[in-house]
Amino acid sequence: MSTKSNVNISKKTFISAIIILMALLMLSGILTQIVPTGSYIRTEVKGEQIIVPDSFSFTSGQRLPILKWFTAPIEVLFSGEGVIIITIIFFLLIIGGAIHILNEASILKSIIDSVVIKFKNRKYLLLAVIVFIFMSLGAFIGIFEEIIPLIPLMIALSLELKWDKLTGLGMSLLATGFGFSAAVSNPFTIGVAQEIAGIQMFSGAPYRIIIFIVTYFILTTFLIRHAKKIEGTINMGETIAIETGKTLGQDQPNSTSCQAVLTNEKGVKWFLACTLLMVILILLSPVVPIISQLNLPIIGLVFLVSGIGGGILSGFSLKRTLNLFLKGARSMTPGIVLILLATGVKHVIQTGGIMDTLLFYSSEWVSSSTSLQALLLVYLIVFIMNFFIGSGSAKAFIIIPIIAPLMEMMGITKQMAILAFQFGDGFSNILYPTNAVLLIALGLADLSYVKWLKWVFKIQLIMGVISIAFLWIGLIIGY
Which keywords describe this protein according to UniProt (predicted)? Predict the structure, then answer.
């Protein structure tokens, strides 16, 4: 017997995420009542606001009203980041709508069944290849939000291979996040940070390639061990987050599954062509400025076309295709609330006037430390800042102008300062509940944040120790 389910933000995950984010929103509000307000002078460089070092001063003024804590999730839409937040929301709705069409047309099911048949005796090789691809997207190109459309596909593939949803998230979300951590030429973290620090863009790559390779093998080993542990023990009643057209208890696709590839060949080819176009656009984004600036809406548009075109080529009428799209988009609306709450936490800290104060206190702490301690403190500062500011390039414009000259004064190379910044930014990308991409991914997988945190804690701890070792080695070799 076949089963059908749709991509949606599950009620359980939604409620637990709401509770966590509301608690964080209140905590941020309390901080604005305790921490003194202050600010750095900022100057505009290439359209971005960069902090002027040694320009901090405490300010006096009214504390952020308590009412603003609760209105922050709405006010953030009218802030400087309102456009990107609205873009992410529309991106989420498009994904929900397009995937629902692809599910109903059995396009994703056909592709997954074909992959399972081809790799049924080499599935751990398939896992290793997928992890490498997703890690490379984060490490070399700086892709993160754009992988959201692929997450349900990876979850479905994982379950078809007798693994679980966590393995599917590990192959995609976790791998991309770790790619950010072990970035080699990520233009949004490495590129921006090196340009601000005044050193050659993408210099020092050989050492970062070594870090990437080590991180890849550790993550792949972790995922394979987990997959082997749970293989064959999945609850047979568990259904996957997108349509598979069969129960998980079957060892391989049945004749109906195999036939789906043949009967919907047009829809499958259309989706694969659109996916190839998305990959090409992603690869071009670092070298084509207009694509880089509009990457998210462009990817969303291509995915929209892939969904609607796939539905029509599968024999659906335009009316039915659009109705399916609207139904899928509606199922994703709880994600909008999560995104607004997550960005509202940052908005409270910024409008409360304490972000620069926290950064000033941190820089004073760093300047009175030894070389290794200073690097570890930079790592920790960025790690904490990522809780409030998810964008790697935004953090670079805020913190690099301060820590780069500070490190140089302490006899530490700017390259090492950027490495510490990179580690702090990357490893927390898939850890904090204020990260909208993580919340969306967990909602698609119908997994609670607590369960995710328990699962990634061990690998995060291991990579934390490994990254500290790389900082220590970097100091020794004069990186």
Answer: Cell membrane, Membrane, Transmembrane, Transmembrane helix
CA distance 195 to 181: 19
* pTM of this structure: 0.79
Q: Which residue has the higher pLDDT, 74 or 251?
A: 74
Q: 16-52, pLDDT tens digit by residue?
A: 888 888 999 999 999 999 999 998 888 877 667 788 8
Question: Strand, coil or helix: what is 155?
Answer: helix
DSSP secondary structure string, 186-227? -IIIIIHHHHHHTS-TTTTHHHHHHHHHHHHHHHHHHHHHHH
CA 240 from chain center: how many Å? Answer: 21
Q: Strands 38-39 and 42-45: what pairing?
A: unpaired
pLDDT higher than threshold 70 for residue 361: yes
CA-nearest of 1, 83, 17 to 445 is 17
Helix 436-445, helix 151-160: angle, nearest 10? 40
Which residue type does 38 have?
G
With the CA atoms of 455, 461, 467 and 470 taken in that order, what torsion angle do they form, in degrees rounded to the nearest 10?
-130
Q: What is the three-class DSSP state of 254?
A: coil
DSSP 39: E
Radius of gyration in angstroms for the set of CA atoms belonging to the chain, rounded to a whole number: 23
How far is residue 413 CA from its own chain's centroid? 29
- C-alpha of 409 from chain center: 34
Asked whether the beta carbons of 196 and 397 are under 8 A apart, the reply is: yes
pLDDT, position 7: 56
pLDDT value of position 393: 78
CA–CA separation, 462 and 218 (whole Å): 9
Contact between 332 and 242 under an 8 Å Cβ cutoff? The reply is no
In the chain, % of residues over pLDDT 90: 32
CA 425, 172, 2: angle at the middle one, nearest 5? 150
Cβ(426)–Cβ(189) below 8 Å = yes
Q: Say how many CA atoms lie within 13 Å of 342 toward its Cβ.
A: 25
CB-based burial label for 133 (10 Å; 0-12, 13-18, 19+)? middle
